[in-house]
Design brief:
CATH topology of chain A: outer membrane lipoprotein receptor (LolB), chain A
Distance between the termini of chain A: 73 Å
Strand order of the largest sheet of chain B: 5-4-3-2-1-8-7-6
Order of helices and strands of chain A: HEHEEEEEEHEEHEEE
Oligomer: heterodimer
Number of strands of chain B: 8
Strand order of the largest sheet of chain A: 1-8-9-10-11-12-2-3-4-5-6-7
Helix content of chain A: 25-40%
Number of domains of chain A: 1
CATH superfamily of chain A: Lipoprotein localisation LolA/LolB/LppX
Largest sheet of chain B: 8 strands, antiparallel
CATH class of chain A: Mainly Beta
Largest interface: A-B, 28 and 27 residues
CATH topology of chain B: Lipocalin
Strand content of chain B: 25-35%
Number of helices of chain A: 4
Order of helices and strands of chain B: HHEEEEEHEEE
Largest sheet of chain A: 12 strands, antiparallel
CATH architecture of chain B: Beta Barrel
Shape of chain A: globular
Strand content of chain A: over 45%
Distance between the termini of chain B: 61 Å
């Protein structure tokens, strides 16, 4: 009896593990993933959340952890605020980008002036709103499925992005189909992982958050 | 008034000693700036002719050499560096910085920062000074480049 119970426990445990294990998605699963994520992102007018960014430095065998808050609004506005262990603010307001490293020191760039910047911003925005799944000109897109989470691997095709990143992995939760995690693998072996938490959808975000001085 | 030769010699030596001491004090010791026992992180602001770039430098002392990475605030790496005694070599340099003249300048500047300054050796065209707010500034006067470092953790 006890032996039977033991084997049943092992079976249930291994079934659960299989459910968590990501496998390449079938065509039908891909289609479902694309539909659900696209529908969810279409309904997302804004997103406020906390983030934790972990940079793994392969040469030093060390990690750099930074934290902050993100504000996204679907009129092409994004505010990325680092508050630990350093202060740094990145604001995208339509076609302009502002970067503030410390009080009084601000750089403002016209996104059109730099192809590299355009690509980076596209990745950031499309990663948050899920539109990256439709950008088949910029990425080879591979879908992975499990009961508990979905993952999409974006392999850059454009020259500038390809030089920097080998893969960008987006992990979606299967409750609200929003991005939980972004993992960027650089060509040099480093990885940057950004985990989003405390998400608040469709809250009003004041324009002051996106003002570029 | 005639000064005796011995006195002249004495004053000359005194002057020499004072100036040597002053010269050593004007070059900060890298070893007092960087901790060899743990990983250190610094805010870095690089000013060149028409550009100003900020980022983070992560520094570690391993096996009698300095190793570090320069990344931007988003975690994108500009380059790694490995600096054995007296030298510095850049590795994994991001494509738009991966030009021989940029690598050579940065390698020379970082070698000075980590080694020459540590041994109190002044190098022509380069200087290192500490500001009252704790930041320290490395200057390459020939290329008109300034690196400002601020300790984070």
């Amino acid at each position: 009896m006890k032996k039977g119970l033991f084997f049943i426990t092992i079976l249930i445990f291994s079934l659960n593990l299989n459910a968590q294990k990501l496998i390449p998605a079938t065509s039908a699963q891909q289609q479902l993933m694309l539909e659900k994520i696209t529908a969810s992102s279409a309904q997302m007018k804004s997103l406020i959340c906390d983030f934790e960014q972990v940079k793994e430095l392969s040469l030093l065998n060390e990690k750099m952890v930074s934290k902050g808050k993100m504000y996204y609004r679907n009129d092409n506005c994004l505010r990325w605020e680092y508050n630990s262990p350093y202060l740094y603010t990145f604001v995208l307001n339509d076609k302009k980008v502002m970067m503030q490293a410390e009080a009084g020191k601000t750089n403002v760039i016209d996104v059109k002036s730099s192809k590299f910047f355009q690509e980076i911003i596209k990745v950031m925005m499309n990663g948050i709103n899920g539109n990256g799944l439709k950008d088949i000109k910029s990425f080879t897109i591979n879908y992975y499925w499990s009961e508990n989470q979905w993952q999409v691997h974006l392999i850059p095709l454009q020259k500038e992005m390809k030089k920097m990143f080998s893969t960008i992995q987006l992990t979606f939760n299967v409750k609200d189909y929003s991005v939980d995690k972004v993992e960027m693998e650089e060509q040099n072996g480093d990885t940057t992982t950004i985990v989003l938490s405390g998400k608040q959808f469709n809250k009003a975000i004041e324009n002051a958050k996106f003002i570029i001085n | 008034m005639r000064v005796k030769p011995a006195m002249t010699c004495f004053f000359f030596c005194l002057l020499l000693l004072v100036s040597c001491n002053t010269a050593k004090n004007s070059v900060l010791s890298g070893k007092t700036l960087f901790d060899t026992t743990k990983v250190s992180k610094y805010r870095i602001l690089i000013k060149a002719k028409q550009a100003e770039v900020s980022g983070i430098m992560v520094l570690k002392y391993i096996n009698n050499e300095w190793r570090g990475s320069l990344i931007n605030e988003f975690g994108i790496k500009a380059f790694d560096f490995v600096a054995p005694q007296g030298k510095c070599k850049l590795k994994n340099t991001i494509s738009f910085l991966d030009k021989w003249y940029i690598r050579r300048t940065v390698e020379s500047d970082f070698a000075f920062l980590l080694w020459n300054a540590a041994e109190g050796k002044a190098v022509k065209g380069k200087s290192l000074e500490q500001l009252p707010d704790g930041r320290f500034i490395l200057k390459n006067e020939k290329r008109n480049i300034e690196y400002a470092f601020q300790f984070i953790e």
